[in-house]
Amino acid sequence: MENPFSKALSADPAPLGLAAFAFTTFLLSFVNAGLIPASGANVVVPLAAAYGGLGQLIAGSWEMRRGNTFGFTAFTSYGAFWEFYALLQILADLKVLTVLPSVAVGWSLILWGILTLYLWGGAMLLNLALNLVFLTLWLAFVTLGAGAVYSSTALTHVGGYFGILAATFAAYTSFAIVMNSIRPGMLPLGPGIMRRKS
């Protein structure tokens, strides 16, 4: 008897994870870049918990089920990042923690940048669109981290713009994968920079 869930299990979870990342990153990056007031961070918190975090954790769990180690590691890690961000903001608002701005927060962002740097290496093998997502995200984390460590508004604004670029590339990649699932080859993702050995 045919498994009624077999088609559902073959669906690609990457567009969900990329969209959850992209649209949450857009909003926070608008704040970091100074394009919307800092109070906009209050709206980022529920979006980070419900979509950026949960959406990527779901995508990561399905990537694991499909045997995609890269997708599992990336989506689960960045989903956890958004849950970390939301929890940090909530605890700060409740006066449980006094963290913002903070050198420790800056270094936590730099550490996320290190994770992103090593994932960027994997993205180079996949396609140009993902390569650009991870490159600009790495630049965003490092610049935002330095901005927090040195209390530099200018660096935070630059990091915000890198975040907007990362979100743009992620949104495009999500859209391209969805459209290509309907009509193969409709939108290009570009070749990987490095070729896999067969």
TrEMBL record:
<feature type="transmembrane region" description="Helical">
    <location>
        <begin position="69"/>
        <end position="92"/>
    </location>
</feature>
<keyword id="KW-1133">Transmembrane helix</keyword>
<feature type="transmembrane region" description="Helical">
    <location>
        <begin position="43"/>
        <end position="62"/>
    </location>
</feature>
<dbReference type="InterPro" id="IPR047623">
    <property type="entry name" value="SatP"/>
</dbReference>
<dbReference type="GO" id="GO:0015360">
    <property type="term" value="F:acetate:proton symporter activity"/>
</dbReference>
<feature type="transmembrane region" description="Helical">
    <location>
        <begin position="158"/>
        <end position="179"/>
    </location>
</feature>
<feature type="transmembrane region" description="Helical">
    <location>
        <begin position="98"/>
        <end position="120"/>
    </location>
</feature>
<keyword id="KW-0472">Membrane</keyword>
<dbReference type="GO" id="GO:0071422">
    <property type="term" value="P:succinate transmembrane transport"/>
</dbReference>
<keyword id="KW-0812">Transmembrane</keyword>
<feature type="transmembrane region" description="Helical">
    <location>
        <begin position="132"/>
        <end position="152"/>
    </location>
</feature>
<protein>
    <submittedName>
        <fullName>Uncharacterized protein</fullName>
    </submittedName>
</protein>
<dbReference type="InterPro" id="IPR000791">
    <property type="entry name" value="Gpr1/Fun34/SatP-like"/>
</dbReference>
<dbReference type="GO" id="GO:0005886">
    <property type="term" value="C:plasma membrane"/>
</dbReference>
<dbReference type="Pfam" id="PF01184">
    <property type="entry name" value="Gpr1_Fun34_YaaH"/>
</dbReference>
<comment type="similarity">
    <text>Belongs to the acetate uptake transporter (AceTr) (TC 2.A.96) family.</text>
</comment>
